[in-house]
Amino acid sequence: MNQESPEDLKRYVRQMRFTPLGVEGQRQIANSRVLLCGCGALGSVLANTLVRAGIGFLRIVDRDFLEWNNLQRQVLYTEEDVRSGIPKAIAAKAHLQQINSEVEIEAHVTNVSASNIGELIDSVDCIVDGTDNFETRFLLNDASVKNNIPWVYGGCIGAEGQTMTILPGETPCLHCLMQAGPPPPGTTPTCDSAGILSPVINVIASLQALEVLKIVSGNRDKTSRVLQIFDLWENQVRQVKLDQLCEGENCPTCHHGQFDWFTGKQGSQSAILCGRNAVQLSFPGKSQVDLEQLRDRLGGLGDVDCNPFLLRAAIDGFEITLFADGRAIIKGTEDEVVARNIYAKYIGN
């Protein structure tokens, strides 16, 4: 460790020796607060990188639990995490606390929605995207622009990935880039139909993490002002300039102050999950569910497992995963009507 490095920051000495960051930049990182939405493929790399870099506070929000096929690309998790049946956010927090006990980590097992986004962004300096759907991304974009909080978008499919940094008032937002709004369901490939290679996830998440570190260390002038697109299989890298998107002043979000996703005017309470033959059902405002009581009630109908975070039941050819907030994932159908009928039949209205 060099003589100028404070004792309390000694674990970050190699990072601080990067002159543009230095001790002062590391201090600002240590005082920063970041919201990570989604802790799957992108999110687990992001969380790992940011916690090792020494951010002060990380709020993780993820709605899902772990499955075996996650381990190919979701780097924080182990086989034991899958066997335990615990949600991703809880498993991530446990591992991250062992990586860096100095970072305050908050885990939320919930769906990011208009009903909770205000609470989730409270007191954060930056939002980073680890999600797998554009509805949530448009919600994050609304929250970012409305509340003047920078956010970093990222997405991957196959061997391709892209990322873009949004600085409200300085750069175009996601709605500027996608003026038609989120693509309709079924019109874009999914990780199940097109596959996914883990190296592209590591590339995109690493770029996202570096953008976050630039922002929270006081170096936002060094952030990328282009859409970066990578095709690792074809060895292609593109940078798309976005300046012209600001000139038209026709973005509903950043030019006209319409925040329909943030207010809940747009957005659904159900979602077909990427390539999993499953539907997620959400019930904003629903009271907490007594999982143990429900386990006893469903025990005679099929195989039922329960932990403090979720209940999983295999009944009549469907797999029902119920979270304590009443949200459920119904596996065995991609029909929302069927999924809601199963929920009503076994969980109740």
Topology:
Blueprint: H1 13-16, H2 22-30, E1 33-37, H3 41-53, E2 57-62, H4 79-84, H5 88-99, E3 104-109, H6 117-120, E4 126-129, H7 134-147, E5 151-157, E6 160-166, H8 174-177, H9 191-194, H10 198-216, E7 226-231, E8 236-241, H11 243-247, H12 260-263, E9 270-272, E10 278-281, H13 291-298, E11 303-306, E12 310-315, E13 318-323, E14 328-331, H14 336-346
Parallel strand pairs: 1-2, 1-4, 2-3, 4-5
Antiparallel strand pairs: 5-6, 6-7, 7-8, 9-10, 10-14, 11-12, 12-13, 13-14
Explain how this protein is built.
This protein is α/β, with parallel strands linked by helices and 349 residues long. 34% of the residues lie in helices and 21% in strands. The chain is built from 14 helices and 14 strands. The protein has helices at residues 13-16, 22-30, 41-53, 79-84, 88-99, 117-120, 134-147, 174-177, 191-194, 198-216, 243-247, 260-263, 291-298, 336-346, and strands spanning 33-37, 57-62, 104-109, 126-129, 151-157, 160-166, 226-231, 236-241, 270-272, 278-281, 303-306, 310-315, 318-323, 328-331. Strands 3-2-1-4-5-6-7-8 form an eight-stranded mixed β-sheet, sandwiched between helices. Strands 9-10-14-13-12-11 form a six-stranded antiparallel β-sheet, covered by helices on one side. It is globular.
